[in-house]
Amino acid sequence: DSNVAPLLRMGACIHCGTDVTKLSTDSPWKTRHGSFDVMSWAFPHTRTPNRDNKCIPEHRHLLRSFIKECAVLLKPGAMGIITVKEGWPYNNWDVAGLV
After folding, report:
1. Residues ≥6 apart with Cβ < 8 Å to 81
2. What is the DSSP string of 77-90?
3. What's the alpha-carbon Rg for the chain, to the nearest Å?
């Protein structure tokens, strides 16, 4: 993909289909605690339909788990990035409030 190629040339690790709740214990990175400069997750989703009552709490739990994993895998002073859409229900996930 033309968007990914430049990142790979710069040495980025790009993985899809990864369980972000187990990055520090059950992934290719489990032995690399404290070694990442940036961890990014674009448009996370649990597959629960947005209209389902469980949607907001499930996504908040998923994002909280990712933030916890970032704390283990990122270098001190490094950056974790989560990109979500604007509007309902995404604003109700309160990503900033989870940090």
Report:
1. 38, 39, 40, 41
2. EEEEEEE--SSTTG
3. 14
Contact 56, 10 (CB under 8 A): no
pLDDT, position 65: 95
Task: Say whether pTM exceeds 0.70.
Answer: yes
- Cβ neighbours of 7 (radius 10 Å): 12
Please give the pLDDT value at position 19.
87
Q: Give residue 58's Cα distance to chain centre.
A: 14
According to DSSP, residue 93 is labeled: G
CA 13/CA 7 separation, integer angstroms:
8
Q: What residues have CB less than 8 Å from 37, skipping those under 6 apart?
A: 74, 75, 78, 79
Residues in Cβ contact with 80 at an 8 Å cutoff, skipping those fewer than 6 apart: 38, 39, 40, 66, 67, 70, 74
pLDDT tens digits, 13-23: 888 788 889 98
